[in-house]
Amino acid sequence: MLSTRDASRTVNAVGDNAVEISGGGLSVRVEFDPATGLPSRQNVSGTGTHGRPSEVVETMSDWRDAGGVKMPFEIVLEQGGRKAGEAVVSQYRFNTV
To answer: Would you call 83 helix, strand, or coil by DSSP?
Structure first.
């Protein structure tokens, strides 16, 4: 989300609740939940293996507080329009010693 600090990247609003960040042959479209302002989905596009276009969609949900930071506890990955994986997080731990 700090891509505006990198002159090789372009950041554009592409809707009321979405931004697109591009550079270096990759782009990511981040969609935000209008009710919470938190990311709900991100779509990463670029060139995959053998020069073919690649697209990975990550859908994030069940946002909860984790040590003072909101984090998604459910994440679903899709690649090429098909479900590629799912994660259910039980706990986040930051800066522990």
So the answer is: strand
